[in-house]
Amino acid sequence: FEWKNVANLADKPPKTILTATNNSTGDAVVAYKVKTTAPKRYVVRPPQGVILPGKSAKITLTMVGKDAETLLAKSTRGPLHDERETNVPADLIKSTEGMEVGARCEVRWQGKERYYAGKIRKCNEDGTFDVDYDDGESKDKFLVQTTDLAPSYREQQLEEKDDKVRQSILSKMWQELEKKIKGGELDKKTISSSRLTTKFSISDAEKEAYAGGLVPGPVVDPAVARSATDSMPVSPGSPEAIFAELSALRKKYDDLVAYTVNLTGDRDYLNNELATVKAKLDREKTKRAAETGGDGAPAAVADTKPSKADSSGFSLFMVLLVAFIAFIVGRIVN
């Protein structure tokens, strides 16, 4: 994810394009699905689809603006802008693995007070070190799964259907596929998986504009020009301001729709799993009922004759319960 507009991440959050290609020379149609470990932080559009032989699909991964601002705020004066630092003095480095190439360490970036995680890249002859920082890395991951589309689905020509219909059909297909793999009907290799780790970087233009790592907030003063080439100020309530607000709302709406599609797919999957569990439970109940009856015969009808305890009118428990209530009422009255 390249940060190209750090002064206005809410409206233009970081995004990247993931390209998936079907290299088949035959007639195999590939179905794909993209998932992330942080579904609330990223919008994946489209989250699943089909790729014809020799064709490619472009999947847009967009970070939510609020999360982008939060992540950037943690590194406004850190190595997010400089993922590598050279000639770092030894007294600015802390390492429990020794001062060797590849050793994990913490470094005071540019000699400032705060330490940042990284690893030693090079040991210089003058006693200094070159360091690669971890700050551009993220624990967020994406999982890209692909499989050959079954003939029954291929005949439906999903690539020509409406996106909403296509998403619903593909969700059902993936559920059936995963169910068959769990049940041992299909091999796990039926689905190919690629795991991707996110990485964030500041473009060279942004580094030059905001040298030193200090990233200013968005311009909110209406008397300030919008850009160096635009001398007209943005006034509250002006057509320009209204248009900008509507554009931002439209973007948020699109993100919400994409996120809803992801939730719908997850809901359908969970409903299918719930139905499967209920069916298994019903079969187990029927099986146990048949076993109770013995040799497949129906279970014997329960004896409806009152038991000795029932014929006595009151059980011991009921007598004790009445006595306890009477005791409590008596204490309250006193």
Proportion in β-strands: 25-35%
Secondary structure: helix percent: 25-40%
Q: Topology as H/E string?
A: EEEEEEHEEEEEEHHEEHEEHHH
| Shape, principal axes of CA atoms | extended
Q: What is the oligomeric state here?
A: single chain
**Low-confidence residue ranges:** 210-236, 296-313
The N- to C-terminal Cα distance equals: 76 Å
- Helix-and-strand structural type: alpha+beta
Mean pLDDT: 75
User: Quick one: biggest sheet?
Assistant: 5 strands, antiparallel
Number of helices: 7
Per DSSP E runs of 2 or more residues, the count of β-strands stands at 16
What strand order characterises the main sheet?
Answer: 7-11-10-9-8
Taking all Cα atoms into account, the compactness measure Rg is 32 Å
Description of the molecule:
Strand 15 and strand 16 form a beta hairpin. It is built from seven helices and 16 strands. Helix 3 runs parallel beside helix 5. The chain has 334 residues and is α+β, with helices and mostly antiparallel strands. The strands form five sheets. A five-stranded antiparallel sheet has the order 7-11-10-9-8, with no helix packed on it. The chain has a four-stranded antiparallel sheet with strand order 5-3-12-13, with helices on one face. Strands 2-6-4 form a three-stranded antiparallel sheet. It is extended.
